[in-house]
Amino acid sequence: MIELGRFNTLKILRDTDPGLFLGDDEDNEVLLPNRYVPTDFEIDDVLNVFVYLDNEERLVAVTDTPYIQKGEFALLRCNAVNEYGAFLDWGMVKELFCPFKEQAYKMKKGGWYLVHCYLDEKSDRLVASSKTNRFLDNSELSVALFDEVDLIVSHPSDMGMNVIINKRHLGLIFQGDIFKDLSIGDQLKGIVKKIRPGNKIDISLAQIGYRNIEPSAQALLELINDHDGFLDITDKSSPEAIKSVVQMSKKSFKKAVGALYKQRLIRLESDGIYLVKK
Fold this sequence. Notes:
Blueprint: E1 7-15, E2 19-23, E3 29-33, E4 46-53, E5 59-62, E6 73-81, E7 85-89, E8 96-99, E9 112-120, E10 125-129, E11 148-156, E12 160-165, E13 169-174, E14 187-196, E15 200-204, H1 213-226, E16 230-231, H2 239-246, H3 250-262, E17 266-269, E18 272-275
Parallel strand pairs: 13-15
Antiparallel strand pairs: 1-2, 1-4, 2-3, 4-5, 6-7, 6-9, 7-8, 9-10, 11-12, 11-14, 12-13, 14-15, 16-18, 17-18
């Protein structure tokens, strides 16, 4: 089966004037236009191609790599808006359409929007939606407490920042756990901090409890190294100053300092932290 909106591994069947015809094991075929044909090829060679509908609504294979595939989330730029909806740049010749009914907020030309790409069953076309929450499901969780997960920053809330977890679930980073600048569309790692009633998932950007000591200590050590062996901050510094300099909570910072001090990797002075020279 040739899957629309995804990369497919297909065999070269024949060479024609408009390009190469590629096929799968079920006798389905698709055209790879001449502009995408490799310089050297032989019949029965296998190619990895992206399949979508061109401007004439014909199934076509290309060697371009889109910024988003079917079933994925990505931050895309709006190139144009007309009476039907918005057209997004996803790295392909034909732009990705986002109808007005799928816009969480009305899109404007030049704006950047986090969207989900899916196959519209009525039109059999790939479309985008910025109503990303409806493509997430927390009814059955595939994550557990303290799991490391992949995150995409979704949208802010009064309590913090909503995130997409492993492209499947909705989670929240509470404001008190945010110690670096986050922007919509950022992709980063996180830890499942808590699972609340209703399968609501709280996320931390640092390891939890005792698990936090080693990575935080390593990050602090690297930061001191990057500052020529001295950091002008102490455990008496304000939480705001610590957050600004080391992007940690004061509690995590003190644990990291304690871990490095016990290993005799740093010495603590009234004006800051010094790397112990060996």
